[in-house]
Amino acid sequence: MPPVEYRELRLCSNKGAFEALPSRPLVLDLSSVREALERRGREVTDARVMLIVPGTPELTIARDGRVLVKSRDAAAARAAFEGIRDLLVGR
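Above: the chain's sequence. Below: its structure in token form.
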């Protein structure tokens, strides 16, 4: 199966965060993603159905592959997402 691509980040309706959506249905192995983030020195809160990665900006990674980047700054949101993208798409 080819790697998952993500659609362009879009501003959420509350305008307080950006969201990245996978281009096709996805089920992430959150424990593997958590371990990979921790190996990179990132703190992670495992809420079972999602991972919360504190920082500026904070990231929330859902089991279905959605990523919420809590920032109103599009460039900061894009940079934060690109910093973890490879953990999600299997590259």
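The two ends are 12 Å apart (CA to CA).
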